[in-house]
């Protein structure tokens, strides 16, 4: 990103402060053009580029870089930034506002750790953890689903609406001795619908990522058993051992 576009992006960051600003850099007629985008993410610590703005930028020229700001924070990329950068396949520029310090990252094959990853809804959340466990431990690619923060409060029921298309079937949750490694446990955490998922690791342990916390291995008992609503099993799970 050249100095002119850095100035435009910095002005955009000032306009959006204290929320994160986001935009795209495109090549139009051989020149870099900065395209400011609307951030439709929830809160002040994340960004989601409006789909209409992404399409508009794509029509304007070839998208070659993603930009966003870190309000009152250093420009060092978070785990979610690195994961999302890999997904886009593009370089990312990050500016600390109002400090004006810059950093850039590029896709290098980064994969967030299964345990100890930071929370970022839609990028590093409980379903992302399930997907990553399946591909890393069993070589099974699960589909991703577009989701916004607190979708369960918006009249959506994403887990129950989509587990079938992800290849899962319901298994018996009443007999917990029948749980197998890799079974996915759906849970209802302060929600009208199941809104949390964990992977059963065997030996009474689960792997999960609760909102606002680091992902962790925990004992499957007490509260977690109480709020469990469904156990799901993938038919290909044990064919990939």
CATH superfamily of the largest domain: endopeptidase domain like (from Nostoc punctiforme)
Number of structurally distinct domains: 2
Strand arrangement across the biggest beta sheet: 6-11-7-8-9-10
Averaged pLDDT: 94
Description:
The protein is an alpha+beta fold and 241 residues long. It has 2 domains: 3-105, Cytidine Deaminase, domain 2, CATH 3.40.140.10; 126-240, Alpha-Beta Complex (endopeptidase fold (from Nostoc punctiforme)). It is built from 6 helices and 11 strands. The chain has helices at residues 3-16, 51-60, 79-88, 126-137, 158-162, 223-226, and strands at 22-28, 31-37, 62-71, 92-97, 101-105, 169-171, 184-187, 196-202, 205-208, 216-219, 228-233. Strands 6-11-7-8-9-10 form a 6-stranded antiparallel β-sheet. A 5-stranded mixed β-sheet has the order 2-1-3-4-5. The protein is elongated and about 65 Å long.
Attribute tags:
241 residues; alpha+beta; Cytidine Deaminase, domain 2; endopeptidase fold (from Nostoc punctiforme); 2 domains; six-stranded antiparallel sheet; five-stranded mixed sheet; 11 strands; 26% strand
Topology:
Blueprint: H1 3-16, E1 22-28, E2 31-37, H2 51-60, E3 62-71, H3 79-88, E4 92-97, E5 101-105, H4 126-137, H5 158-162, E6 169-171, E7 184-187, E8 196-202, E9 205-208, E10 216-219, H6 223-226, E11 228-233
Parallel strand pairs: 3-4
Antiparallel strand pairs: 1-2, 1-3, 4-5, 6-11, 7-8, 7-11, 8-9, 9-10
Offer a concise description of the structure:
One of its GO terms (molecular function) is metalloexopeptidase activity. The chain is an alpha+beta fold. It contains six helices and eleven strands.
């Amino acid at each position: 990103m050249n100095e002119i576009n850095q100035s435009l992006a910095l002005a955009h960051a000032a306009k959006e402060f204290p929320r994160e600003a986001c935009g795209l850099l495109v090549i139009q007629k051989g020149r870099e053009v900065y395209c400011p985008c609307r951030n439709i993410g929830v809160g002040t610590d994340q960004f989601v580029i409006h789909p209409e703005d992404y399409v508009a930028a794509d029509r304007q020229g070839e998208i070659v870089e993603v930009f966003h700001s870190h309000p009152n924070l250093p420009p060092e990329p978070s785990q979610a930034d690195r994961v999302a950068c890999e997904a886009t396949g593009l370089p990312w520029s990050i500016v600390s506002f109002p400090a004006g310090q810059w950093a850039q990252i590029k896709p290098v094959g980064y994969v967030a750790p299964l345990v100890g990853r930071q929370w970022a809804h839609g990028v590093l959340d409980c379903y992302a953890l399930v997907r990553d466990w399946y591909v890393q431990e069993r070589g099974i690619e699960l589909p991703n689903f577009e989701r916004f923060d607190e979708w369960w409060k918006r009249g959506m029921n994403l887990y129950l609406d989509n587990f079938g298309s992800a290849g899962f079937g319901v298994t018996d949750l009443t007999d917990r001795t029948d749980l197998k490694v890799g079974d996915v446990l759906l849970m209802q955490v302060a929600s009208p619908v199941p809104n949390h998922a964990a992977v059963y690791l065997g030996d009474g342990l689960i792997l999960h990522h609760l909102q606002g916390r680091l992902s962790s291995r925990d004992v499957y008992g007490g509260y977690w058993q109480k709020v469990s609503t469904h156990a799901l099993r993938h038919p290909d799970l044990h064919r990939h051992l």
